[in-house]
Amino acid sequence: MKHAVVHWEIGGPDHGRLRDFYTGMFGWPTQTADENYTLVQPEQGPGGGIMRTGGTMPAYVTFYVEVDDLDKMLDRAVELGGARAVPPTKIGEGMEFALFTDPAGNLVGLMALAGE
Prior knowledge:
The protein has helices at residues 15-26, 70-79, and strands at 5-12, 30-34, 37-40, 48-52, 60-66, 83-92, 95-101, 107-113. The chain has an eight-stranded mixed β-sheet with strand order 2-3-4-1-5-8-7-6, with helices on one face. By secondary structure, it is α+β, with helices and mostly antiparallel strands. The protein folds into two domains: 1-52, 2,3-Dihydroxybiphenyl 1,2-Dioxygenase, domain 1 (Roll), CATH 3.10.180; 67-116, Roll (2,3-Dihydroxybiphenyl 1,2-Dioxygenase, domain 1). Residues 4-113 form the VOC domain.
């Protein structure tokens, strides 16, 4: 499916508390990636992550849409009244993400996979 939601994140300053809250709330199975990030895989739908925010980064909830070209889609967001928030950033072998804000200030993620 073109432009499918492939990932989501919930971030806040107390990673452990958020992890425990959502695990208790929904029974989501989790796998700790490191002290700042926990992977979540519900029985249905895309997986996600719970992240510790730091510094001046506020708490947030966002989703990631798979795209072929991060820069092209960031430019499109700007054309439509949004703004670039995080430039294309490599996060794993063959995987990159970027973030933009929509006209209302909502943070939205983009994900590109090598060979897609």
